[in-house]
Model the fold of this input.
Amino acid sequence: MKSLLPFVLLAGPALADCPAPPDHSRAIDTALAELQDSANEMEAREVNGQLWELWLDAPDERAQAMLDEGMARRESYDFLGSIDVLSRLVDYCPDYAEGYNQRAFSYFLARDFESAVADLERTIALNPDHIGALSGMALALIELGRAAEAVPWLRRAVDLHPYLAERALLDSLPGEDI
Done:
């Protein structure tokens, strides 16, 4: 047991030194209000892009490097590599919602929908107005054959982003009358 002690002592602080995620709450609130006031899909797309820039702003350079690497691996279809890197990110920065959201997307693409749902739940707990996580939750639940459970998640996403592409799914989901 003594041989593990130095490793535990070294690993502990390394995992605990992630700073708090940047506080973009005012800018996010402003962007969400602008999204509601968007006159058309093009305006909404621009504002949505601003939201993603804020969400993708990691707590520090180390976290940003892991986020960027995880997303790059996913873009090259290395889903398992992406999940590995993003798992290290959420271990390092457990209060950074986007780490969980990006890992959920990688899980989704790897067709591990249960794991995606778990990460999306954590994302939404940390950031209740994360449109991507809300719509992602709906999509993952649909893939799991739980379409009725997807409706409130998708409805919340569309309430925040009236021009969300996934809004068309509401016409085909059970229990939704629009």
User: Anything to note?
Assistant: Residues 1-15 have pLDDT under 50 and may be disordered. The two ends are 62 Å apart (CA to CA). The CA atoms of residues 25 and 54 lie 9 Å apart. Residues 41-55 form the longest helix (15 residues).
